[in-house]
Known about the structure:
By secondary structure, the chain is mainly α. The protein contains nine helices and six strands, in the order H-H-E-E-E-E-E-E-H-H-H-H-H-H-H. The protein has one domain.
Amino acid sequence: MGILDGLEALGLGSLLKRETIYEEEHKESAEAAAEQAVVKKQEKDFLMDKEFECPVCQRKFKQRLARTTLKCIRHDADLRPVYDGIDAAKYDVIFCSACGYAVLSRYFAPLAPTHRKLLNEGIRKNFKPQDGTLHETISYEEAALRYKMALANAVVKLAKNSEKAYICLKAAWLYRGMREDAEAKGEKDKEALAAMAASEKEYLITAADGFIKARAGETPPYAGMNATTLDYLIAAIYLETDTNLRDGAKLLQDVITSRTAKPQNKEKARELLLQIKKKMGEE
Length: 283
């Protein structure tokens, strides 16, 4: 399964064949239905509407975004924030259903003429317009498709490796949230859960690859992160995916000996390094 699979239905099948990311029936009981209605109402309460003007086709549209006043419960090792009552990752891609333009909210801005031209030719020209109805909430499946569109747009407009890597990181977080949500609702389909975990891992590995390229060819900040934060993140991804553990250990040692890293960040790096060394010892 490719990380851009699913875009064929939107008219972008030819893009998948020639682009690379980095250049080189069950009825619910009345009780269950009522419970689901409560969940949706709660999620809706954490959202707000905002109007955007597409920088590609100039169409104005509204989209639901997560409020900025969310309560963060915890952060996963790879810096994923977990909020009370909502998975904010579902609502972080701004998507124009008329022309196919999609971008993470942190990167939404006017486009350079060269980027607009690339997107008109590579995305808009082939995209099949979708229903732009503004629903109360969106599903994980819809959110996943939007992340694929954001990644496709980033590839076509020749975005920085750090932007493409950050899209992959957030897509991995989305699939983790999808799996956690399914498990919390009692999902018994082991194949479905395994597919979510596999997608998460694939996106994480692709994110780490992109961040390594960004570290070598860009200047900080990288998607808002300084060098030591990025080193920690890459190491955390290596531990999460059980890949390149020795490289991860070296990155964490660099964080620990850094003159610019904050004491609390060095302590987090030490804790993560112990976990990596333990796993390396077990292997």
